[in-house]
Amino acid sequence: MTQLHELRLRLLVQQESESIANSQPMDLDLSVVQARCLCWLALLAEAHEDQASDAERRGDTEQAMGWFADSMRLRDVIQVVSTIEIPLPAPGDTDSGEGSFSSEPPLAA
Fold first, then answer.
1. SS3 of the chain
2. Is 38 left (phi over 0), alpha (psi -120 to 50) or beta?
3. Average pLDDT score, the chain
4. Which percentage of the chain shows pLDDT scores above 90?
5. What pTM did the predictor assign?
6. 8 Å CB contact between 3 and 11
7. Comparing 103 with 71, which gets the higher pLDDT?
8. Could you tell me if 89 and 69 are in contact, meaning their C-beta atoms sit under 8 angstroms apart?
9. Residues 85, 61: contact at Cβ < 8 Å?
10. d(Cα 6, Cα 76) in Å, to the nearest integer?
11. pLDDT for residue 66 is more than 90
12. Quick one: average pLDDT of 13-29?
């Protein structure tokens, strides 16, 4: 089941990156978008870990476990998103907006 969730997440992110590339082909570097998203996800995971630690200090084990589980899910998302290869539009396709991509292999993030 975990592989299914990972594949769905990969597909969702790739579809969204294509949508962004199609809407702003000249003004956007998807690798920069990916890097920024990863930074925010890491900060969010760290905040969840801090919340888990605070709940644990207060003796609220159930709340601590919830925050910790959320932080682990965020770490899983970070791992998946960081491994997604972002395709670059072919040089002649930037004006068409049809989402065609180069036949060259994608660059790793």
1. CHHHHHHHHHHHHHHHHHHHHHHCCCCCCHHHHHHHHHHHHHHHHHHHHHHHHHHHHHCCHHHHHHHHHHHHHHHHHHHHHHCCCECCECHHHCCCCCCCECCCCCECC
2. alpha
3. 75
4. 23
5. 0.56
6. no
7. 71
8. no
9. no
10. 9
11. yes
12. 72
Residue 17's contacts (CB-CB under 8 Å, 6 or more residues apart) are: 30, 33, 34, 84, 86
Give the model's pLDDT for residue 55. Answer: 94
Q: For residue 63, with 0-12 CB atoms within 10 Å meaning exposed, 13-18 middle and 19 or more buried, which class applies?
A: middle
- Paired residues of 89 in beta bridges: 101
50's tokens: 């801090």
- Whether 90 and 100 have beta carbons less than 8 Å apart is answered as yes
Q: Which of 13-17, 29-33, 61-65 has the highest mean pLDDT?
A: 61-65
Residue among 83, 85, 78 at smallest CA distance from 18: 85
